[in-house]
Design a protein that fits this description.
The structure is a single chain. By secondary structure, the chain is α+β, with helices and mostly antiparallel strands. The chain has 2 domains: about 10-110, Glycoprotein, Type 4 Pilin (2-Layer Sandwich); about 115-190, Dna Ligase, domain 1, CATH 3.30.1490. Helices cover about 30% and strands about 25% of the residues. The chain has 5 helices and 8 strands. It has helices spanning about 10-30, 45, 75-90, 120-130, 160-170; strands spanning about 50-60, 60-65, 105-110, 115, 135-140, 145, 180-185, 185-190. Helix 1 crosses helix 3 (about 75-90).
Length: about 190
């Protein structure tokens, strides 16, 4: 059987994950904790290790986004935890309040396993990146950041995409080093 992180989830499994995320979001906002996912009650593929990001928006504006890049727990539990974290722990935003819940839209990005993406320099990276397909992780020393494939919708030019990701990683403009490590992944969007 293929794992949830490597094969597309069905529409039924996607709706199940959205329900888990919505329940966890509501519980987090009302009680301050993620909802517990009883694994015996979820589809078998959602019990397999998986990594996801949960993005919250209100009226089209980002309201929170937290996730994991590497599978370390069952996908259903990762979704529940990240829904709670997106609502309460995204340092860019105050915690979501109960009055905001009716206006919150959820989007899940279920990630494939990141793979090393060896490139010689930035020009090589820009040539090999697939806009709209690749999520990108850059890392150099303590500087690390990622953009989900969905970010291509706001930054369709590869040069801009990389420049903004470099800024997110708190690296100087134009920074490149032989020690810079790149990884790519794909994501199945569920909303």
């Amino acid at each position: 059987m293929s794992s949830a992180k490597n094969a597309s989830l069905t529409d039924v499994e996607g709706r199940e994950l959205l329900a888990i995320a919505r329940a966890s979001l509501a519980q987090a906002v009302r009680e301050g904790s993620a909802s517990w996912v009883e694994l015996s009650h979820v589809s078998p593929r959602l019990r397999e290790p998986g990594a996801c990001f949960v993005t919250l928006t209100t009226h089209g504006e980002l309201r929170g986004c937290i996730g994991t890049l590497a599978a370390h727990q069952p996908l259903a539990q990762d979704v529940a935890h990240n829904a709670m974290a997106s609502a309460l722990q995204d340092p860019r935003f105050p915690p979501v309040s109960p009055r905001e819940l009716p206006d919150i839209q959820l989007e899940l990005s279920v990630l494939s396993e990141p793979v090393d993406f060896p490139v010689q320099d930035e020009a090589d990276l820009l040539r090999q990146l697939k806009p709209g397909v690749h999520g990108l992780i850059i890392e150099d020393g303590l500087h690390r950041a990622t953009f989900l494939p969905a970010v291509w919708e706001q930054l369709p030019d590869p040069r801009e995409f990389v420049a903004h990701l470099r800024h997110k990683a708190r690296l100087p403009p134009g920074y490149w080093s032989p020690t810079l490590r790149c990884q790519v992944y794909t994501a199945q969007k569920i909303s």
